[in-house]
Design a protein that fits this description.
Layout (H helix, E strand, L loop, with lengths): L15 H19 L24 H7 L3 E4 L5 H4 L20 E4 L1
Antiparallel strand pairs: 1-2
């Protein structure tokens, strides 16, 4: 999960870290409630505002940074992905070959 750079502090979330993690957990719960997928194959993480897609200089750009990224890894590659940086992954919105990684923004 990700957030924009506007700090949050309310009764529900102490920080953008908690907000971004909560976003990711919510998406994982939704996927797991509607699909027959082993929960052990999921990795959920929150990045707060540390990995922006766009500059946080306008409302439109801040909205682009409030997102959840989903990476789908096939087969046993999940073990190697856990050890690699997200910046090292191959990103292809139309990955069709075994070993490709798909990243989507919700």
């Amino acid at each position: 999960g990700h957030t924009d750079n506007v700090p949050i502090s309310n009764e529900r979330f102490r920080s953008n870290w908690e907000l971004s993690t909560s976003r990711a957990v919510s998406v994982a719960h939704q996927i797991l409630s509607t699909a027959d997928i082993n929960p052990a194959r999921f990795i959920v993480s929150g990045h707060a505002d540390t990995r922006p897609r766009a500059e946080n200089d306008s409302s439109e750009n801040r909205a682009k940074n409030r997102r959840v990224d989903i990476s789908i890894v096939r087969g046993n590659e999940i073990d190697t992905v856990e050890e690699r940086s997200i910046d090292e992954l191959t990103v292809s919105p139309l990955a069709n070959n075994p070993g490709d990684t798909v990243e989507e923004s919700l």
